[in-house]
Amino acid sequence: MPSAGRGPGAARVLGRALRLRCPRCGATPLFPRRFSMARRCALCGLRFERAPGYFVGAIYINYAVTVGLAVGGYLLLWSLTGLSTAAQLALWVPVVALFPLWFFRYSRSLWLAVELLVNPEP
């Protein structure tokens, strides 16, 4: 249990991020509508976007997870099935085009959680 004056632990903050909730209190959904992010938490007041360009880090998270998925999936399928590069490209190009759109909200939520852990806002 965290001591008085300290925020929640890393596991709790990251769990809230994966559920797309406020990383500080877990009460408010980050995305009340599909692609529209709330400005701040209705309960604890945490600002979700702290400055212009704040979510550039989320782009890096999205890119890294997408590349990891595609390269890891390619290597796994290559070792297990021996699919040709052309067949693999036919499979993975749509994945790398669509996955980042689905993962967009999670990358923002994870970036906000990591930022809260590293640099908590009072």
**Shape descriptor:** elongated
Q: Give me the count of strands.
A: 0
| Secondary structure: helix percent | 55-70%
**Radius of gyration, Cα only, in angstroms?**
18 Å
The helix/strand series, from N terminus to C terminus, equals HHH
**How would a textbook summarize the main sheet?**
none
Provide the number of structural domains.
1
Number of helices: 3
Weakly predicted, low-confidence segments? none
- Helix/strand/pairing class, anyone? mainly alpha
> Cα distance, first to last residue?
19 Å
What does the average pLDDT come to? 90
β-strand amount: under 5%
Q: Care to describe what's here?
A:
- The chain is an all-alpha fold and 122 residues long.
- The chain has one domain.
- The protein is 57% helix and 0% strand.
- The chain has helices at 10-18, 56-81, 85-118.
- The model has no long low-confidence stretch (mean pLDDT 90).
Helices and strands in order, then pairings?
Blueprint: H1 10-18, H2 56-81, H3 85-118
